[in-house]
Amino acid sequence: MTDPIPFTPDLSVKPEVAAFYDKETGTISYVVKDPDSNVCAVIDSVMDIDYAAGRIAYANADRIIQHIKDHGLKLEWIIETHAHADHLSAAPYIQQKLGGRMGIGENIRIVQDTFGKIFNEGTEFQRDGSQFDRLFTDGDSYRIGTMTAHAMETPGHTPACMTHVIGDAAFVGDTLFMPDGGSARADFPGGDARTLFRSIKRVLALPPQMRLFMCHDYGPNGRDIKWETSVAEERAHNIHVHDGVTEEEFVKMREARDRTLAMPKLIIPSLQVNIRAGHVPIDGSGKPVLKVPINTL
Fold first, then answer.
1. Segment holding 66, helix H or strand E
2. What's the pLDDT tens digit per position in 164-176?
3. Quick check: 239 and 250 in contact, CB under 8 A?
4. Which domains, and CATH codes, for the chain?
5. Which distant-in-sequence residues (6+ apart) come within 8 Å of 53 by Cβ?
């Protein structure tokens, strides 16, 4: 059974949304502006990494920072829809430059515990979510200028996944893709296809005109990259979860499909960084380092 939506969306509020696409990871980051003030939030930022060379950079984050400065905006929130496995968060870098509070779902603690064991982290690694400024629970609200934003739990891809509903716009993270992309995988540690189906149905219970913004797009069949759709379009055309697809059909499809997928190429650095709210791990000598667990994922 799908849990009810724990708030009533205000469709009269129409945030201004600027999208920033990262070709290397297929990630879309967003600046979400209150139309009635100069206040904004950043959702799912990207830190650049040359994994082979062990170098990080901030070209993607700098584009977002420059946009905020050019438009005279005040950054209040830096939101992560979940702990990403395919790109590294630039949240601390953006916070250092512009301020704002970092927020993620409270179940990041589950993800931290799971991957703390996988990466053999020591007791100095806190697994209580304290690296973030705010841990959201289902139905929590927060303010972006005059707008009220709502956090809604949508686990399945990871335990910490949340959809953030801001006026007539919902930022779904990896819970959904564009209609011709279907849905995200559910085979990472802590993921579950049945839970994902129920979370998707929760998103699709939002009003049909609700704008939906994706965290990823890969241009299926060579089409141009897209990131905005609607609840109505997803319900009518999503190749995995359109109206009429049963839970059992989805679980069978998702689990079979997941067995064919390779691990994301950046999963090892991404998770080590993202469970730390975007900070690179530091070794005993004070140097930033990444581990590579063998035969574990």
1. helix 59-70
2. 999 999 999 999 9
3. no
4. 16-274 (3.60.15.10)
5. none
